[in-house]
Amino acid sequence: MTLVLNDPSFWPIINSNFFYSYWIVAAGVVVVYDWVLTLGQEIELIWKQRWSLMTVLYLVIRYIGIPYSGVSVLRIPLVSVGDAVSIPQPSHSHALNTFICRGNIMNYTINWTDVVVTALLGVIIIARLHAMYQRSRMMLILLVIIFLAVNIACGVIAAISLKYSVAEEFILSGTYMCTFEYEENFQLLGSIIWILMTVWEVLALCLSVWIAVKHFRDLRRLGLSTGSAIGDCFRVLIKSHVLYFASFVCVCCFQLGSLTPVVTNSNSMGVEILYGVCQILLVVQMFVLGPRLILSVREYHAKLVADFDAETCMTSIVFQEHVALHVPTSSTV
Questions:
Q1: CA separation for the pair 198, 72 (Å, rounded)
Q2: CA neighbor of 81 nearest in space, from 166, 190, 192, 204
Q3: Is 178 helix (H, G, I), strand (E, B) or coil?
């Protein structure tokens, strides 16, 4: 049953919901802006190249980000009403909102998209580590086992946690609001998911840094000029991985902080800003820095090939000029 209230005391809650919706829109704008910014590189390095697993992963993650932001606007988990989390929508779309609210459609869509995209990003990390460890079969098996254990556990826990959320409907001063009431176990299960994901990300970063340091030491010990390309490749891999990991750490800290009772039971402006920043960082981590894990490597490879072609062409020109200077002309015969 939809609860209709016109109490002016709820106006601050309505205003804070709309304030949070601006952050959701801003997150969507960030995704679209980054897509426009890298569209030229995407066409050259993704669409015009031979298709592979990495190509598919890039396109899925990149182009699921835009509808993800749109769905987030329809399902804006924000301000507590008692123990509930409110979602503001215009009153004229009440019929559609009622269908969405009662079916928990937006809630399930957002949460399962997070699970799937996180798993796809894990596959990209495994492919990068596999290449950095010179396609070691033992390392691949180890990474796959740990990856499956973590992601299966997170998927099961996410499915269980969704059972602890109940959708309710409110119309406050003419504004439709779909609320999600969470039980205490939801916070515990959410914390476990983020802890497991942190363990995986920390392990991946440590493996990347360790093999990179090992290669840099070997190159310095050998002192070979031919090793500069390998060193540059590892620098590109480490730089993009560290940036991705830094964004993940920020998202993880904000998410764990938002699950604490102090934050969930507060309606202050600071809490609204916390939720908004967390949403933007989450979108940037998954749909901006995630695809760049592939794009940065493709860009470096294209530059390496172009430099090699230019060097080959220059060597050929010098060789032809050298030959021309030593070939006798017809007048000297």
A1: 24
A2: 166
A3: strand
What's the CA gap between 167 and 142, in Å, rounded?
Answer: 41
Residues across the chain: 333
pLDDT of residue 144: 96
> Do 170 and 199 form a contact (C-beta atoms < 8 A)?
no
Tokens 């983020």 sit on residue: 194
Residues with Cβ within 8 Å of 236's Cβ and at least 6 positions away in sequence, in order, are 296, 297, 300
Kindly list the distances between the CA atom of residue 114 and the CA atoms of 37, 57, 99, 148, 200, in Å, as whole numbers in the listed order. 24, 15, 22, 16, 16
Cα–Cα distance, 96 to 87 (Å, whole number): 14
DSSP 3-state of 182: strand
pLDDT along the chain (333 residues), means of 10: 59 70 87 92 91 93 87 55 41 49 68 92 94 91 96 92 71 64 75 92 93 84 61 83 91 83 71 83 92 91 70 45 44 33
Task: Quote the pLDDT of residue 317.
Answer: 42
